[in-house]
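General statements about sequence and structure are easier to judge against a single worked case. When preparing material for the folding task, we compiled for one chain both its residues and its backbone structure tokens. The amino acid sequence and the backbone structure tokens for this protein are reproduced below:
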Amino acid sequence: MQISAKAWDAFIKKLRAVNEAASQKILDYMERNPVVTPLDRQALIQYAYAIAVRYGEGASALACIMYDSVAEASGVMLPAALPAATPTVGEVAKTITGTLKTGNNNIVADSIGRLVKRTGVDTTMKNAIRDGAEWAWIPRGETCAFCITLASRDWQRASRAVLKDGHAEHIHANCDCTFAVRFDNKTTVEGYEPAKYKAMYDNAPLDLWNTPNGKPPAGHESAEKATPKNRINAMRRAAYKDNPEGEIEV
């Protein structure tokens, strides 16, 4: 079975709309209610918590629908997908407190959009682990070197090893990359090209070292000795040459 690019992009578009709506709510609130005092900060935290829960439920509902649709189309009988837990008030408070230090309302707003997106990804991941499914990281649009690296790993058995503190780890608010699942080795997502992404990773321009003399560190003079961090950073620096945001179009 192939999940069509049209169906996948429709799913991604809906997820993005939920994430962006949550971020916009926070931005609008902060423009109306500047954070000046500790009481202002506490009021923002309570509002952001309500937004993270409400829109997080929306993201997890979309993830459940997609998960169940793929299972049904694959002819697999499984319990209905369960939504992941929404962010706690403590998680929201930590996020707001940390991002307020930047003095940038957009960064604060995007941090709540990220928590919303994480809830949707958590939903996909935890159901996949429950059911012994396989997953793959599907990049979309403008993405980053780390997302390309994840995408290069092809389909893998779902595992708790990729969770950190019970959550999906590598989540960006303004990113359309996410996990797809499958229940047999014939299913894939149209347009997903792991071999292409693996080639991008393997052929990262390792001459672009971020060192004072521009040369590789001792012991890393050859591609064979390059670490994953070396390769990811090399891809990132190469992307910055063509794009001020360091993004890679896929």
In short: The longest strand covers residues 134-138. The chain has a mean pLDDT of 88. The radius of gyration is 20 Å.
